[in-house]
Structure formats: C-alpha cells, structure tokens
C-alpha cells in the first residue's frame, strides 16, 4: 500500500504550476521545501540509500533535455523498429532487491518531472520524423503505482488515443488498474505486468502488491479487452526455483485466459556490473546479489548453463497454454 510523503521538495521553476499544486494538495505533506534544482539534493554525496528507502521524500522538478532514450538491449523490443523509453520519474516507490536503480542512483528519494508537455512535444517530433515509435513509459519506475496522485498514466493513454502510430507500453507491478479502467482499450496500448512467485514477492519484491492482487488487476483489464502482456522477468534462482515458478505458472493459468493474453516475456537476472557493485555495497541483506554470476563485456548474468535451464523450464510451463510465437525471451 502506498504511503504518502512527509516532505516534498519543489524546484522554484515549477512551484506555481497548477499540476504541482494539485500534487501537493492531494498528498498534504508535513512540509514543502523550495529548492533551486533537484540535482542539488538528489545527487549530493554521503546519502544512505537504505535509510532513505524507509521513508523516501518526493522531489518535483523540470526536465530540460533528453526526453527520449533508445531502448536497452536488456529488454526485448518486440520486433518494433523504433524502441525507446522516457524517464518521467527517477526511482520507484517499490524496493525490489534486484532493482538496478539502487546501483544507478545515490538517493532513494523519488523525482517526478512535471513538465509533461515537453515530453509530449518530443514524442510528436519523433513520430513526425519516423512515422512510428514503441515507447515504454515505465522503464525506470512504476507510473501506474503513482496514478492516485500523479495521473501521468492517464495523460499518456489520452495522448496515445490521438496518436495511433505510437505503440505505448505501460509496465507495472501494481494492482492499480481501476485507476485507468474508465478508458477504452486501444490497439496501440499494452499493459505489461511483471509477475513473480508469491514467495519471491514476499521476500524480495518489498512493498509491492501480492501475486493475487496483480492477477486480479490483470483479469479485470483482460475482461475489458485491454492488451495485456505477462512479464516474468527477471527469473530469480531462489531455493527450489523450479517449484516456485511452476506454482506461479499454475496461478496464472488458474486466473487468466490464454486467448486474452498478448504474449509472455521472460528472462534471467542480468545487469551492468558497475550497478551490481554499487548495489552490493549498499545492501548486505540480499542473498540473490551474491550469486556466482558470469561477467561478459561489463554485463553480469547467470551462467549459460543456468540460463538454458531457465529457458527450458519457463518455456515448458507455458508452451501448451499459449502459442509459441507469443512466448518472448530476453537474456
């Protein structure tokens, strides 16, 4: 369940925006602090990520450049020529032990950029030039989990409805589908839920909704005709992992209808080695970060033998439930 922010830091450049004032009004923080630039707080040295994560603060800011980034090779492009993502937020309200954001940022505070129109304008320009775009808007955060006070997912849905050459991916671990259920499904919008065994969620994906809650949200979305993708990514080699992921597959099959699912995507744990080094330095409470990984070209991952075992097992769980072309792999 989302816990409100006790303090909100606001850049002077955006304090008077109507959007900023609406967010403050909804959250009702104990204190609002005016700052010059979010980096003065977010990027300062000697921050304790783990302590901050217990009670993160919110920073409202303006982004001035880089409104689109080319998609990472770590993620599947689903055969779209132009695969990009944007960063309308820095950090996430959840606390998954495998999340690379811990290695990317010094701060656990959440930055939200409120100058949405600049992001839409940049997308307009890209579409005009290239005629098509696959855009992931929750690549580095979980926007749907913030919908109750931020409302950005709704804004992007409305934008995509008017721009049919845009394919929009909204990825989430939340159970917040009802916050956008008033919209009609659109062929160019896909809701992608990341799922893990319930034991993994409870022990590793801290502060996230349970598996039954996520499945219920997915069921509601598919029943209304939304395109839904299942993302089992990353697969984590926990104790008895095959049994745990078999249990996950059974829960999926018990709750969802295969002909209402667009595809299933899965992959193993993989990360930039520098990020992992930072993560290990920040938390010694996570056994999954101390696995004997293989390093290649600054990327750490499971060994080829472990990767093949993951591929064979996860694929075997779904090959008779959904067609082979609908099973996508990312390693």
Note down, in words, how this protein is organized.
The structure is a single chain. By secondary structure, the chain is α/β, with parallel strands linked by helices. Helix content is 33%, strand content 22%. The chain contains eleven helices and 18 strands. It has helices at 18-27, 38-42, 49-54, 101-104, 116-130, 152-162, 198-203, 211-223, 241-255, 273-282, 304-318, and strands at 7-11, 31-35, 58-61, 69-70, 83-85, 89-90, 95-96, 110-113, 133-136, 166-172, 189-194, 205-206, 227-235, 263-268, 270-272, 294-296, 299-301, 327-329. Strands 4-5-9-10-11-13-14-18 form an eight-stranded mixed sheet, with helices on one face. α9 (241-255) links the parallel β13 (227-235) and β14 (263-268). The radius of gyration is 20 Å and the shape is globular. The mean pLDDT is 95.
Quick gist of this model?
This protein is of the alpha/beta class and 331 residues long. 33% of the residues lie in helices and 22% in strands. It has helices at 18-27, 38-42, 49-54, 101-104, 116-130, 152-162, 198-203, 211-223, 241-255, 273-282, 304-318, and strands at residues 7-11, 31-35, 58-61, 69-70, 83-85, 89-90, 95-96, 110-113, 133-136, 166-172, 189-194, 205-206, 227-235, 263-268, 270-272, 294-296, 299-301, 327-329.
Note the run of SSEs as H and E.
EHEHHEEEEEHEHEHEEHEHEHEEHEEHE
Strand content: 15-25%
- Unreliable runs: none
* Radius of gyration based on Cα positions: 20 Å
Shape: globular
Overall mean confidence score, pLDDT: 95
How many E-type strands?
18
Helix share, percent: 25-40%
Report the biggest beta sheet as strand number plus sense, adding barrel if it closes. Answer: 8 strands, mixed
The first-to-last residue Cα distance is 31 Å
């Amino acid at each position: 369940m989302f816990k409100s922010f006790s303090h909100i830091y606001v850049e002077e450049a955006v304090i008077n925006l109507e959007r900023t004032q609406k967010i403050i009004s909804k959250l009702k923080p104990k204190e609002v602090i005016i700052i010059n630039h979010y980096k003065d707080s977010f990027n300062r040295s000697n921050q304790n990520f783990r302590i901050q994560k217990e009670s993160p603060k919110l920073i409202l800011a303006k982004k001035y450049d880089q409104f689109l980034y080319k998609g990472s090779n770590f993620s599947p492009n689903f055969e779209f020529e132009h695969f990009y993502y944007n960063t309308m937020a820095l950090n996430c309200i959840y606390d998954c032990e495998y999340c690379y954001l811990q290695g990317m940022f010094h701060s656990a505070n959440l930055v939200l950029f409120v100058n949405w129109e600049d992001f839409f304008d940049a997308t307009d320009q890209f579409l005009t030039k290239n005629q098509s775009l696959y855009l992931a808007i929750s690549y580095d955060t979980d926007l749907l989990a913030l919908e109750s006070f931020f409302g950005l997912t709704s804004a992007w849905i409305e934008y995509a409805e008017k721009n049919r050459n845009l394919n929009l991916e909204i990825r989430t671990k939340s159970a917040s589908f009802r916050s956008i259920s008033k919209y009609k499904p659109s062929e160019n919008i896909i809701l992608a839920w990341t799922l893990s065994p319930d034991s993994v969620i409870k022990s590793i994906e801290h502060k996230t909704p349970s598996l039954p809650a996520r499945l219920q949200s997915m069921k509601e979305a598919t029943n209304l005709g939304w395109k839904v993708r299942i993302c089992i990514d990353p697969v984590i080699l926990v104790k008895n992992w095959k049994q745990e992921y078999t249990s996950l597959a059974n829960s999926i099959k018990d709750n969802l209808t295969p002909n209402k699912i667009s595809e299933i995507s899965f992959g193993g744990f993989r990360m930039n080695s520098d990020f992992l080094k930072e993560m290990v330095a920040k938390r010694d409470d996570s056994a999954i970060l101390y696995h004997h990984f293989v390093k290649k070209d600054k990327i750490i991952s499971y060994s080829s033998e472990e990767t093949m075992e993951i591929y064979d097992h996860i694929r075997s769980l779904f090959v008779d439930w959904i067609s082979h072309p609908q099973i996508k792999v990312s390693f």
